[in-house]
Automatic annotation (TrEMBL):
PROSITE patterns referenced in this protein's UniProt entry, alphabetically: MRP (PS01215)
A Pfam cross-reference name: ParA
InterPro entries attached to this UniProt entry: AAA+_ATPase (IPR003593), Mrp-like_CS (IPR000808), Mrp/NBP35_ATP-bd (IPR019591), P-loop_NTPase (IPR027417), YlxH/NBP35 (IPR033756)
Native species: Pachyramphus minor
Residue span, AAA+ ATPase domain: 15-186
UniProt keyword Signal, yes or no: no
Task of the protein: Component of the cytosolic iron-sulfur (Fe/S) protein assembly (CIA) machinery. Required for maturation of extramitochondrial Fe-S proteins. The NUBP1-NUBP2 heterotetramer forms a Fe-S scaffold complex, mediating the de novo assembly of an Fe-S cluster and its transfer to target apoproteins. Implicated in the regulation of centrosome duplication. Negatively regulates cilium formation and structure.
Name of the molecule in the record: NUBP1 factor
Keywords per UniProt: 4Fe-4S, ATP-binding, Cytoplasm, Iron, Iron-sulfur, Metal-binding, Nucleotide-binding
Cellular component aspect of the GO annotation: cytosol; nucleus
Length: 279
């Protein structure tokens, strides 16, 4: 009960919480989480927090140009590392002496750090808390859902790529969400086609042999939030720690990201209104 009270007190000022999930590694969860955080923080009136709970493979510090930054302790807890005044980040990457250090931890230690991130980080007043998770349906996922259930979670965004080998694991993630009663905001299909910048011809680098995310969403009665096409600039922006949305504002991928972000915002506002009515 004391721990629950501490978590509630710390997260009381968080208005919306969105988890970014996928059963598969390498589908672009962290890339999407970074783009979502940048997109939401483009509104200077919104305070955004990005929490990286990928303990063994933290890539958010690199993507947000925060490598080498350290976590500072204050009287009110750990202070997030800020990209902009309205965009704070927390990651195990800030606790390592080198980006190449391996984190070789068993489940209980991972769970303890996730709890510490939620209980001890002084986020302040936050409109959106984005949680970037590792692949799978294991310790980190159970821990974050369990701890956040003491307050509230708006839902999960599930990221996939079009090919069946990815969809197979994503179906497991959707099943996980149903079992732990985690609402699903919708699915994002990443790396969905590639338009050649010279000839403008579209190619399917990862052919959707079984109908892709669209068919899966129809079968499982889940919303498809949108499809993000491949763009080499996305990888370059991530490597440099820059916002792809700002660097390539006219790219078809940017337009797709913006539509998806708008749909997530609309879902969160609707979810918040329903919760207030229930109260």
């Amino acid at each position: 009960p004391a721990e629950v009270a501490e978590l509630r007190a710390r997260l009381r000022a968080v208005r919306h919480t969105v988890l970014v999930l996928s059963g598969k590694g390498g589908v672009g969860k962290s890339t999407f989480s970074a783009a979502l955080a940048h997109g939401l923080a483009a509104d200077e009136n919104k305070q955004v927090a990005l929490l990286d709970i990928d303990i063994c493979g933290p890539s958010i510090p690199k993507m947000m140009a925060l490598e080498g930054e350290q976590v500072h302790q204050s009287g009110s807890g750990w202070s997030p590392v800020y990209v902009e005044e309205n965009l704070g980040v927390m990651s195990v990457g800030f606790l390592l002496s080198s980006p190449d250090d391996a984190v070789i931890w068993r489940g209980p230690k991972k769970n303890g750090l996730i709890k510490q991130f939620l209980r001890d980080v002084d986020w302040g007043e936050v409109d959106y808390l984005i949680v970037d998770t590792p692949p799978g349906t294991s310790d980190e996922h159970l821990s974050i859902v369990q701890y956040l259930s003491t307050t509230h979670i708006d839902g999960a965004v599930i990221v996939t790529t079009p090919q069946e080998i990815s969809l197979q694991d994503v179906r497991k993630e959707i099943n996980f969400c149903h079992k732990v009663k985690l609402p699903i905001i919708g699915v994002v299909e990443n790396m969905s086609g590639f338009v050649c910048p010279k000839c403008k011809k579209e190619s399917q680098i990862f052919p959707p042999t079984t109908g892709g995310a669209e068919k899966m969403c129809q079968n499982l009665n889940v919303s498809l939030l949108g499809k993000v096409p491949l763009d080499p600039q996305i990888g370059r922006s991530c490597d440099r720690g820059q916002s792809f949305l700002s660097e390539a504002p006219e790219s078809p991928a940017t337009l797709s990201y913006r539509n998806i972000i708008q749909r997530i915002q609309e879902y969160c506002e609707q979810h918040h209104s329903q919760e207030e009515k229930m109260i």
